[in-house]
Amino acid sequence: MGQGELRGVVAMDGPSGTGKSTVARRLADALGAAYLDTGAMYRVVTLAVLRAGVDPADASAVLRCAESTDLRIGTDPTRADVRIGDEDVAAEIRLAPVTQAVSAVSAVPRVRELLVARQRQVVSEARGRSGGIVVEGRDIGTVVVPDAELKVYLTASADARAARRSAQDAAAGRSSTVDATKADVERRDRLDSTRAASPLRPAVDAVEVDTTELDIPGVLDRLLGMVRERGLDHAVAGR
Q1: Strands 207-210 and 71-73, sheet pairing
Q2: Is residue 15 domain-resident?
Q3: Is residue 3 one of the residues assigned to a domain?
Q4: What's the catalysed reaction (predicted)?
Q5: Segment 188-200, tens digit of pLDDT
Q6: pLDDT score for 59
Q7: CB pairs under 8 A, 24+ apart, for 141-145?
C-alpha cells in the first residue's frame, strides 16, 4: 500500500453492533490507509482454544494456546485476511461458538498483553508504509494507541445493535433471532465492560458518536469530517 491521505492513527472503539467494523473499513479505504481489526485477533485465539479443547476459563492453558497460535492478519481494508498459518479462518471466527467464548478468552490479562504488543507492532509497521491506519476494537484509544490522533467511540441502542447483528448473520447465512442476538449483545457488553483487564470504555478524549439513527454513509461522512477538521489528511495538510 502506498502513501494514503491519512496521517496518523484513528482509534475506533465501541461495543458490538454499532457499525464499527464496516465504518472502520470504509474509512480506511476512503483515506488509502491501513486497517486493523483487533477483535479478529482475539477471535482467532478463541478459535484455536476451542479447537484444542481448552476451557476458555483456564487462563494458563488459554495463554499457552495463544502463544503457540500462528496468527496472521492483513491490513488491507478491502478484504478480510485472517489466518492461522496458511488456513483462512475469516468466516469461521464469526460463528456462534467463537462469539460465545471470545469475551472469556479476551479477558485473560496475559493474552491481552501478548496481542496488544502484536497490535502495536502492526500499527507501527503500517504507519511506516502508508502513513496512517484505522484501528478498531474495544481498548484502542485507552490501551493500544492512547496517543492516537483521533479517538472515536461509537454507541447505539441495544435494540438497534441487535437488529444490525441479526441482519449481518442472516446475510452471512448464520441463523439467529433478534431476541437471541440482543441477549448476546447485552451479555458481551456486561463481560467486556466489567473485566479487570482493559475494560470496554471510551477514552477521556474520545469523540462519542451515537449511530442508532445513522446509516453507514452518515457515520462515514461524520468521521471523514473529523479527520479533515483535525488536519489528519495529506490533502488538507498540503494546502
Answers
A1: unpaired
A2: yes
A3: no
A4: dCMP + ATP = dCDP + ADP; CMP + ATP = CDP + ADP
A5: 778 788 787 888 8
A6: 97
A7: 141/11, 141/13, 141/202, 141/203, 141/205, 141/206, 142/13, 142/198, 142/201, 142/202, 142/203, 143/112, 143/116, 143/198, 144/11, 144/38, 144/116, 144/119, 144/120, 145/9, 145/11, 145/120
Domain count, the chain: 1
Write down the pTM of the prediction.
0.87
Residue numbering of the annotated binding site: 14-22
pLDDT at 235: 55
Q: Residues annotated in the binding site for ATP, as ranges?
A: 14-22
Cell of 180: 437471541
Domain that holds residue 61: 8-233
Tens-place pLDDT, residues 89-133: 999 999 999 999 999 999 999 999 999 999 999 999 998 887 899
